[in-house]
Specification:
This protein is mainly beta and 147 residues long. Helix content is 10%, strand content 52%.
């Protein structure tokens, strides 16, 4: 089966780890049990939404009445973006058209992809000053739940 055919569908996040070199430190940006959904549609668009588990709810039913601290915590505990995607060999390329973080809009996000059974491993590396950082996100194919 071609990579595109394997990729199309909905995926649920299992883990997100960031490892740093040269010291080997590993962090989990949204904790040990993050929540997330990743959708690749047949028309060539994708959407990713990741959040910390057990996020605090606002004290008000309206987001407009939430405190600045509550809004800041909501932003800090969620990550999302969407746009068209394409596949180049063993990489998926996301062009960010929409994002929670406005600094991501217009960027290209290149992810190495690896399929293992019903899992998808997406990874990317970046350099931050003297350190290299490697993101590794483990996704599993979603099963519809129509309760």
């Amino acid at each position: 089966m071609a990579a595109r055919e394997k990729l199309i569908g909905t995926w649920k996040l299992v883990s997100w780890e960031i490892s740093y070199s040269p010291d080997g430190a590993v962090t989990c940006p949204f904790g040990q049990n993050p929540e997330g959904i990743l959708i690749y549609s047949p028309d060539g668009y994708m959407s990713a939404n990741i959040s910390q588990a057990d996020r605090s709810r606002f004290n008000s039913a309206s987001v407009r009445k939430a405190s600045e601290v509550e809004k800041c915590m909501a932003f800090e505990s969620n990550f999302s973006y969407a746009g068209p995607f394409k596949i180049e060999e063993d990489h998926v390329i996301h062009r960010v058209d929409h994002a929670l973080n406005p600094m991501m809009v217009g960027t290209i996000q290149r992810r190495h992809m690896e399929f293992v059974d019903r899992s998808l491993i997406l990874s990317a590396e970046e350099t931050l000053g003297e350190k290299n950082r490697r993101h590794r996100l483990h996704w599993v194919k979603a099963e519809p739940n129509h309760d």
